[in-house]
Design brief:
The complex is a heterodimer of chains A (458) and B (359).
Chain A (H helix, E strand, L loop, with lengths): L8 H21 L2 H25 L5 H27 L24 H14 L30 H10 L1 H9 L2 H5 L5 H29 L4 H27 L17 H11 L7 H6 L6 H6 L8 H9 L20 H8 L59 H4 L8 H5 L5 H4 L27
Chain B lengths: L3 H13 L4 H8 L9 E11 L2 E8 L11 E8 L2 E8 L11 E6 L5 H8 L6 E4 L15 E7 L3 H13 L5 E8 L8 H10 L3 E7 L13 H7 L7 E6 L1 H13 L6 E5 L12 E5 L4 E5 L5 H7 L17 E11 L5 E2 L5 E3 L3 E9 L2
Parallel strand pairs in B: 7-8, 7-10, 8-9, 10-11, 12-17
Antiparallel strand pairs in B: 1-2, 1-6, 2-5, 3-4, 3-6, 12-13, 14-15, 14-16, 14-17
Classes of the chains: A mainly alpha (458), B alpha/beta (359).
Chain lengths: 458, 359
C-alpha cells in the first residue's frame, strides 16, 4: 500500500483488530435509543417537508415563500443525507423494520436507490480512492488527483465543477448508469439502456412532483412555488456536492493504485479508508445536515454503523487506547475551503505533485486551508509545523520549511511486506479467524526505507 | 366522476413520491396505515403466573378473521422488530372492535417473555392478517371435541367464546391438560361457561398431583374411557408435539383422520447441528452443502446460483436475501437468525444445520 505510513504490517493488523473490536462494541450496544433517533429524524423530516410545501401555497407573500423554501431545502437535505444515504447503507437494517430498510427505501433524489447502492455502497466504499476503480474520484469528469490522466478538457473543470454542484442529483443519476463504460465496451448496452430507462422514470417522477404537480396545485402561486422548489433542490445539490467533496478530495487525503490494494488485508482496508477520507468539525447541526458525513472517516471505516454513533466513536478512532494521543488540529467548518476551490483548479493543469503523501500540499492551496483533519495516530495527519510520534518511533515525521514532510515524501510502504500481504486472500476478513496473526514476512521497512526506524513492538 | 378516486390517488401519490401517502399517514399515527397493519396495546391482563392476554386495538386495515385463526405479531424489543405467530383468543368481531392474543412466556423465549412481562398499554405492535385452517366449519357439526394442553387452549377459547356468543352451542366436550387447576389458562371462565351452558362438558386433566408429584399425561386412550363417542365427534387438537402426535396416530388407526384438525405450537426441529448443512435455494431449485465456515454467498456461487453480491465482507449490504427456513450464523458476531423472511447478509452468514434461502 503506497501510504506514507510509518506503521509496520503488525501495527496495521493490530489496528484492524482494534477497529473490529470497536465495531463489535457498537453493534452490541445498538438499541431503543438509536431506533427512536432515526424514527424522530424521519418524522421531523416529513413534518418539515409537509410544512414547507404547505407554507409555499401562500408564497405570493415573500416571507411565506422564504420560510417555505427554507423548510423544504432543509427537509430535502435531511432526506438525502441523514436519512436516505444512511438507510441505503443498511445502517438501520438491524431494526428489521421493512419501512426503514436498505432493500425497500427509495429516496428524494434523481438516482434510483438500486443503482446508487451499487455505485456507492459497493464500488465507492469497497475501492475507496483507488484510481481507476473508485469512480467517485472526480465522478469520471473531474481530475482531482495527479494520478488521474490529464486531458485538455480538464482545463475547464473549475467551471463545470460549479455546474455539477448545481445539478448534482441529476449528475449522480447519469453517473450511476456508467455510460462511459459502454464507450469503453466494459458494459453491456442493453443493461445500460435498461438502467437509463429506470433512471429516466425516476427523474420524471421527481420533476413531476416539484415542477408540475405542486406548482399547479398552488394555482396563482404557480411560479413562486416552482421557483421555491427549484431553489430548494439547487440548495440541496450544492450542499451535497460540498459535503462529498470535503470528504475525499481535500489535500491530505490519499489515493491508491489497483496493484497497491491487491491482496489487501482487513487492517490495510481500514487504513486505506482512514487515509482516503477527511472529517469536518462543527456544531451538531452541521453533523445532522451532513448526514454525519462530517465524520467521513468513521463512516468509511464502518459504513453500516448507525450514523448517530459516528460522533461517539470519533475520539476513539483518533486516539485508540493502545496508542498515546497525538497533538492534532481540529479545524472548524468556517475555516474549511471546499476542495472544489482548491484541488479542482489545481488539477486542471497536466502533471502536478503526487498527493499520495498527506503532506503533499498544492501550490494552489491557500495558506489557511490546512491538510485534512485526520487521525495522526495512524500516520495520516502529517501536518506542517508538527511532529508525529508513534510509540517507539525514534525519528518521527519531520516537516520541512516548505510544508513538505521530508520523512515520507520519498519513501512509501509499497515495497514493504508485499510478499506477506500476497498470502492474504482478497477476502481478507472471512478467510481469517479471530485472533489469528498474519505472517509478517520480511520487513524491509526496518532499514528505514519506509519512513524511519520502526518501533520495537512492530 | 367515475374515476375520481384513482385520479385523486395518483395526484396524492405524485405529491408524496418517492414515498406513498400511506407513509405520511403512518408517521402521524401507525394505526392509520393500510399498508402496514398495526395495533395499539389497550391492556395486558395476567391469566396465570406466566401467561398474559394482550388486548389490542387494531388499525384501519384490520379485517376480522375466523375464530381459531392466528396472527403474526411484531413487537419492538431494544429497537429491533421481532415477529412471532400467536393464536387469537378473542372471538371475531367483538362489539368494541378489540382483539386479544394470549401468550405464555417460555423460559427461553425472548419475544414471549417480552410480551408477558414488558409490553405496556399505549405501545404499538405490528399485525399480520389472520390466517390458519384451525377453524370451525361453516356448517357446525352436531358433536364437537376439543383436546388442548397448556397454551393450546387459546385458539379453542376463541371458538368457545364465539359459540357461546352466538347462542347456538352444540354438544361440546373440552378436554384440557394443565399442570394444576391454577395453571389452567382461562380456568375460571371455562368453569363458569361449563356451569352455565349444559351443552358444554369440561374435563380438566392435571399432570401434577396435589403434592406436586407428576401424574400420567393426557392420552387419547385415557380420554376414550371418559368420552366414549370420540369417533362421532369432529375433533380439534392443539398443544405440545407429544399430544398432537398421539392424537394423529389415534385418529389414523381409527381410520377417521378426516374428522381431526390439529395445530402445533412448535415447528418440527431441524436436523443438521452446528456442522454446516444442506443449503437449498428455493426459487432457483438448486441445492448444495456447506460447511459451518462457508458463507452462503460462496456456497451459492459455487452451486451456480446468481447471488446478489458486493463487498464480500459484510459492509455494503448488497447481498441481502430473505431466509426461507433454517438457521444461519453471522460469522462476525456469532448471532444466529432463524426467522423466515429475515434478510441475511449471505457474504458473512454460514448455515447452522440445513437452511433454505429464498432465491
Amino acid at each position: 500500500m503506497a501510504t506514507p505510513t510509518h506503521l509496520s504490517a503488525r501495527d496495521i493488523e493490530e489496528l484492524g483488530e482494534e477497529l473490529d473490536r470497536l465495531r463489535a462494541e457498537i453493534l452490541a450496544s445498538r438499541g431503543e435509543d438509536d431506533a427512536r433517533y432515526i424514527r424522530r429524524v424521519i418524522a421531523a423530516q416529513r413534518g418539515l417537508e409537509a410544512g414547507g410545501r404547505a407554507m409555499m401555497f401562500a408564497s405570493l407573500l415573500p416571507p411565506a415563500w422564504l420560510a417555505g423554501t427554507a423548510m423544504l431545502a432543509v427537509a430535502k437535505i435531511l432526506e438525502n443525507m441523514e436519512i436516505g444515504h444512511n438507510v441505503l447503507h443498511g445502517q438501520w437494517d438491524w431494526m428489521r423494520d421493512p419501512d426503514i430498510h436498505s432493500t425497500t427505501w427509495e429516496w428524494d433524489s434523481a438516482s434510483p436507490a438500486a443503482q446508487w447502492k451499487y455505485s456507492h455502497n459497493y464500488v465507492h466504499h469497497t475501492y475507496t480512492n483507488v484510481v481507476g476503480r473508485d469512480r467517485d474520484l472526480g465522478y469520471s469528469i473531474l481530475r482531482v488527483t495527479p494520478e488521474q490522466p490529464w486531458h485538455l478538457v480538464h482545463m475547464a473543470q473549475p467551471l463545470y465543477n460549479l455546474a455539477l454542484a448545481v445539478v448534482f442529483e441529476w449528475g449522480i443519476a447519469l453517473y450511476d448508469v456508467e455510460i462511459e463504460k459502454v464507450w469503453r465496451r466494459e458494459k453491456d448496452l442493453d443493461q445500460t439502456l435498461n438502467q437509463f430507462g429506470s433512471a429516466l422514470k425516476k427523474v420524471g417522477r421527481q420533476g413531476m412532483k416539484d415542477y408540475v404537480v405542486f406548482p399547479l396545485l398552488a394555482g396563482p402561486a404557480f411560479l413562486p412555488v416552482l421557483l421555491g422548489n427549484l431553489t430548494a433542490n439547487v440548495t440541496r445539490n450544492i450542499w451535497a456536492h460540498t459535503v462529498i467533496f470535503c470528504g475525499h478530495f481535500p489535500d491530505g487525503t490519499t489515493t491508491f493504485t489497483e496493484e497497491e490494494i491487491e491482496g489487501e488485508s482487513r487492517g490495510e482496508w481500514y487504513l486505506r479508508q482512514l487515509l482516503g477520507s477527511a472529517n469536518i468539525s462543527g456544531p451538531a447541526a452541521l453533523h445532522l445536515l451532513s448526514g454525519n458525513l462530517s465524520h467521513q472517516i468513521e463512516h468509511h471505516l464502518f459504513p453500516d454503523l448507525p450514523s448517530n454513533r459516528y460522533g461517539q466513536i470519533a475520539p476513539r478512532v483518533r486516539h485508540p487506547p493502545t496508542r498515546p494521543p497525538v497533538p492534532r488540529r481540529v479545524r472548524g467548518a468556517g475555516s474549511r475551503t471546499e476542495p472544489g476551490a482548491t484541488r479542482v483548479p489545481s488539477r486542471r493543469s497536466p502533471g502536478g505533485e503526487p498527493s499520495a503523501s498527506p503532506c503533499g500540499d498544492s501550490p494552489w492551496l491557500p495558506q489557511r486551508a490546512m491538510p485534512a483533519d485526520r487521525p495522526a495516530a495512524y500516520g495520516g495527519g502529517c501536518e506542517r509545523t508538527r511532529e508525529v510520534r508513534l510509540p517507539g518511533v525514534a525519528e518521527g515525521h519531520r516537516t520541512g520549511g516548505a510544508g513538505r514532510c521530508r520523512g515520507c515524501a520519498g519513501g512509501t510502504a509499497s515495497g514493504r511486506s508485499r510478499s506477506a500481504r500476497h498470502r492474504v486472500s482478497d477476502r481478507g476478513l472471512l478467510q481469517r479467524h479471530p485472533g489469528q496473526v498474519l505472517p509478517t514476512g520480511p520487513r524491509r521497512d526496518r532499514d528505514g526505507a519506509g519512513g524511519g526506524p520502526r518501533n520495537a513492538a512492530g | 366522476m367515475l374515476h375520481i378516486r384513482p385520479l385523486l390517488g395518483a395526484v396524492a401519490g405524485s405529491m408524496t413520491s418517492p414515498l406513498r401517502p400511506d407513509d405520511y399517514r403512518a408517521t402521524i399515527n401507525p394505526l392509520w396505515s393500510r399498508r402496514r397493519l398495526s395495533g395499539r396495546v389497550e391492556a395486558v391482563v395476567p391469566e396465570t403466573s406466566d401467561t398474559s392476554t394482550v388486548v389490542v386495538r387494531p388499525g384501519v386495515g384490520w379485517r376480522g378473521g375466523l375464530a381459531g385463526q392466528h396472527v403474526s405479531v411484531g413487537v419492538s424489543i431494544e429497537g429491533v422488530w421481532h415477529r412471532r405467530t400467536f393464536s387469537l383468543s378473542s372471538p371475531p368481531h367483538r362489539p368494541d372492535g378489540l382483539i386479544a392474543i394470549t401468550v405464555k412466556a417460555r423460559p427461553d423465549g425472548l419475544v414471549s417473555r417480552h410480551i408477558v412481562h414488558a409490553l405496556r398499554p399505549g405501545q404499538t405492535v405490528r399485525l399480520g392478517p389472520p390466517t390458519g385452517r384451525f377453524v370451525l366449519p361453516d356448517e357446525l357439526p352436531a358433536q364437537l371435541l376439543f383436546v388442548t394442553a397448556g397454551s393450546g387452549i387459546t385458539p379453542v377459547m376463541s371458538m368457545l367464546r364465539h359459540l357461546a356468543e352466538s347462542r347456538q352451542m352444540p354438544d361440546v366436550m373440552l378436554a384440557h391438560s394443565a399442570r394444576n387447576a391454577s395453571e389452567v389458562i382461562f380456568g375460571e371462565e371455562l368453569r363458569r361457561m361449563a356451569a352455565q351452558l349444559p351443552a358444554l362438558r369440561l374435563y380438566e386433566h392435571h399432570t401434577r398431583s396435589a403434592v406436586g408429584r407428576p401424574v400420567a399425561r393426557l392420552t387419547m386412550r385415557a380420554l376414550s374411557a371418559i368420552c366414549n363417542d370420540i369417533p362421532e365427534r369432529m375433533t380439534w387438537v392443539c398443544g405440545p408435539p407429544g399430544l398432537v402426535d398421539d392424537a394423529e396416530s389415534y385418529w389414523r388407526e381409527s381410520g377417521i383422520s378426516d374428522r381431526l384438525l390439529t395445530e402445533r405450537f412448535q415447528p418440527a426441529a431441524r436436523p443438521g447441528g452446528g456442522q454446516g448443512g444442506r443449503v437449498r435455494f428455493v426459487r432457483s431449485g438448486r441445492e448444495t452443502t456447506a460447511s459451518a465456515g462457508t458463507p452462503l454467498l460462496a456456497a451459492g456461487e459455487e452451486a451456480g446460483v446468481i447471488m446478489p453480491t458486493g463487498c464480500r465482507m459484510g459492509a455494503c449490504h448488497s447481498c441481502l436475501v430473505p431466509l426461507a427456513g433454517g438457521q444461519v450464523r453471522d460469522l462476525r458476531t456469532g448471532d444466529e437468525h432463524d426467522t423466515p423472511g429475515d434478510l441475511i447478509q449471505t457474504c458473512v452468514s454460514v448455515p447452522v444445520g440445513d437452511v433454505d434461502i429464498d432465491l
